[in-house]
Specification:
Elements lengths: L12 E3 L5 E3 L10 E2 L4 E2 L7 H5 L5 H14 L6
Antiparallel strand pairs: 1-2, 3-4
Length: about 80
């Protein structure tokens, strides 16, 4: 959920069923701002607060990546 104005480009913002602004996701659930070739954020300087607080490679990040792989049937990479 986008709770502060960080300048996220409108093309990456959608309104959820409760009227809140959230990051757009692709059909497979991945963030629309993620560059799938490099796995880097394409709007890093304008990323939302939750992305700023979510330490890349930290416990929560790794747990979410594992959960995402399990949802799409991929095996974890080391």
């Amino acid at each position: 959920m986008l709770i502060s104005d960080t300048g996220v480009p409108d093309r990456f913002v959608v309104i959820d069923e409760w009227g809140g602004m959230i990051m757009a996701r692709l059909e497979d659930g991945w963030c629309a701002a993620l560059d799938r070739n490099t796995l880097l954020c394409s709007i890093y300087e304008q990323r939302p607060l939750i992305c700023r607080d979510f330490e890349m490679g930290g416990y929560d990040c790794l747990a979410e990546r594992t959960a995402c792989r399990e949802r799409v049937g991929q095996t974890p990479r080391s």
